[in-house]
Amino acid sequence: YPPSVISPTPSSEFGYVGIDAILEQMRRKAMKQGFEVNIMVVGQSGLGKSTLTNTLFKSKVSRRSVMTTEEERIPKTIEIKSISHVIEEKGVRMKLTVIDTPGFGDQINNENCWQPIMKFINAQYEQYLQEEINIDRKKRIPDSRVHCCIYFIPPTGHCLRPIDIEFMRHLSKVVNIVPVIAKADTLTLEERNFFKQKIREDLRANEIDIYPQNEFDEDAEDRMINEKIRAMIPFAVVGSDQEYQVNGKRLLGRKTRWGTVEVENTTHCEFAYLRDLLIRTHMQNIKDITSSIHYEMYRVRRLNENNTKPNGQPAIHTNGVPEHEVLSHEM
C-alpha cells in the first residue's frame, strides 16, 4: 500500500513538527558557501559591453576597468578573457566571473568567428566533466561553465545581421543566450519597437531558442512570467556608470542636450528588466538550465563518444566542432 500522507497542523494531536525549518538550514548553508555565476558578454567593439557590465553590478567588474591603456587595443583575433571578482551585499557573497570576447565581429571577414567562443564554452564543460569523473573528486567542483551569454546587437533599426543569426543559431544550443539592443538611446521609441519586432521574427524564422526557452517552463506560473519576458526580448538597454542629479535624486544616466537618459527608468530603457532577469529573479534558473540541460547534453555526448568512437577517427560533435578542437587540455 502507498504510505499515507500526514499533514500535521498546529491543532493536531501532536502539534508542530518543524519541517519548514529546512528552508533556514538551506539558507544558512548557501550563505556559508557563497554563490558563483559566470556571465559572457559578446558583441563588436564600441557597443558598451564593459559599461553595461559595470552598471549591472554597480562595480568596476569589466575587463576594461582593470586593464592598462596599452592592453586595451583591439586584438586582431578573438581573445577570450575572464576576470573574477567577489561582490558582497547584505552579507551575501557572490563570485562573479565576466568573460569578455574582444575582437568578435571586428574583422573584415567574420566567417566562423563564433567557433573560438563555442570552443571556449565546450572547454569549460570538458573541464567540469574531467573533475566529475575523477575517482578522488573534489567535494565541491570549481564551476567555470558559462551560465549566460549576453549578446549585444548593434542599434541599426533594421533586422539581425547574418553574423548575429549565425552566432546565436550555433551558440543557443550550448549556452543560455540573452540578446540585448545596445545603446538603445540612439533609436526613437517607434524605431526601437519596430526593431524588436523584426528581431523576434528573425529569431523565430531561424529557430533560435533564446533564454528563457519555452520547453523549460516548469509550470503555468513559470510560463506566465516567462511569456512576459519573451515578449520584451531583446531588451533595449542603455548603460552608464555616471551619476547625475535629477529632480533632487542621484541617478545613473547619460546626459544629453535635451535631458538625461535614466538607466534604471523603465520608460527610458529596459536595463532594469535585464538586471532583474539576470540577478533578482532568474539567476538560479539560468544556472540550473546550464547544469541540467546544456552541460548534461555535453556530458552524455562525450560519454557516448568514449564508448563508441572508432579507432583513429576523431569524433564530430553535434555542433560541428571536431573533438580535438573542443577538449580543454588540447586548446
TrEMBL record:
Keywords: Cell cycle, Cell division, Cytoplasm, Cytoskeleton, GTP-binding, Nucleotide-binding. GO terms for biological process: cell division. Residues 322-331 have a biased composition (Basic and acidic residues). Residues 306-331 are annotated as: Disordered. Transmembrane segments: none annotated. InterPro entries: G_SEPTIN_dom, P-loop_NTPase, Septin. It is found in: Cytoplasm, Cytoskeleton. The keyword Cytoplasm applies. It holds the Pfam family Septin. One of its GO terms (molecular function) is GTP binding. Its main location: cytoplasm. Residues 33-305 form the Septin-type G domain. GO terms for cellular component: cytoskeleton. PROSITE patterns: G_SEPTIN (PS51719). Belongs to the TRAFAC class TrmE-Era-EngA-EngB-Septin-like GTPase superfamily. Septin GTPase family. This is Neuronal-specific septin-3-like. The gene is LOC107718712.
